[in-house]
Amino acid sequence: MAQRYVRVQNQDGQVYYGLLQLSLDVQVLDAPPWMQGQPTDIILAADSYQILAPCAPSKIVAIGKNYADHAAEMKSDVPAEPLIFMKPTTAIIASEEEILYPPQSQRVDYEGELALVIGDRACNCTPEESQTKIWGYTIANDVTARDLQSKDGQWTRAKGFDTFCPLGPWIVRELNPGARLQTFLNDDVKPVQSACIDQMVFSPDFLVSYISQVMTLLPGDVVLTGTPVGVGGLNLGDKVRVEIEGIGRLENIVVAR
Question: Is the pTM of this model over 0.70?
Fold first, then answer.
């Protein structure tokens, strides 16, 4: 199993980065892993911490319509170049935390995605250089108030509500390019989304390079790489689970705000 890098909070409120052991104990690192954090002698027992989102980025940069089938279901063409937008960092929640359904919306959708974690400052990078800027991979759910997205004509409100960016549960360093991404609702064994991440229109390397021509990406920043076909609405009480082979599962329940 690949090493799993986590961010946790102990019972005294202290936040640590660490390595998750098979026992679910956490070996604490002395710094974020992309800042050359090294293992310490501190071990947190499995029942002594709360798992947090695996990083605390300065920004979340997201990509729209990066799977051709999803662009088609949105009744639009595949963009000629990456379509980028931002989500606020206040939207981030960890796995097992609650997605809050806002009263302003009548249609809130799940969007399972692969997330990239940046490990080194990226500015005006080539795609080749960008390979070295991606430190690791985690799972995201780009929760979207679909009716407000249509109404506003731009996406900030629809995608920016608190809790609209579940992220985690941990980061892995390597990922099979053909890994399958699947989203499940409640206890249904049939996924509502299922695609291989190599079906992206624009690859992770290209996305990081493209974004870096616009804005500098900093260590710990997150890039959401787009969602495949099969997006759909969430209801109060729904449990939504996004799984990516080689990473794990991100699971959240929907409650009223």
Answer: yes
